[in-house]
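Fold this sequence, please.
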Amino acid sequence: MEKSLGQIMDHFPLTPQEVRSYSALSFAYIGDSVYDLIIRTMITSKGNNRPNKYHQQVIRYVNAAAQTKMMERIKPLLNEEEKNMFRRGRNAKSISCAKNQSHHDYRIATGFETLIGYLYMTGQMERIMELVEAGLGEAPQHIDKTDDSKAEE
């Protein structure tokens, strides 16, 4: 998956100057989708199941509280550039806040998504996977297997 998702950016190359001109919330916008796709891919690769079962597993990882926990785990692994991108996202002035999440968690999650978006837009998919795996606490294999016995055919 690292190569296929990373190859998308080969079709939309950005200069370093263009990347610097992007707002933190622009990076968060794409970072949210990239992270969601990574988690969905990890979960569906564990076996065939009903979409509702997939969704119940995905939402355990793709929400502000879970992303805040992930940031706590990966923060010591970040280099200065990555820490700066996280701070930019965390401090960005967002118009809205998630209805069922704390304002604190929402800001941390926005910083996390900004970091993921920045790494993606700069072609650093391998680094994203490294951080996501570290943030999950171990290799992605720890994500629960789906219940194949009840899978839709």
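Residues 24-44 form the longest helix (21 residues). The CA atoms of residues 14 and 54 lie 34 Å apart.
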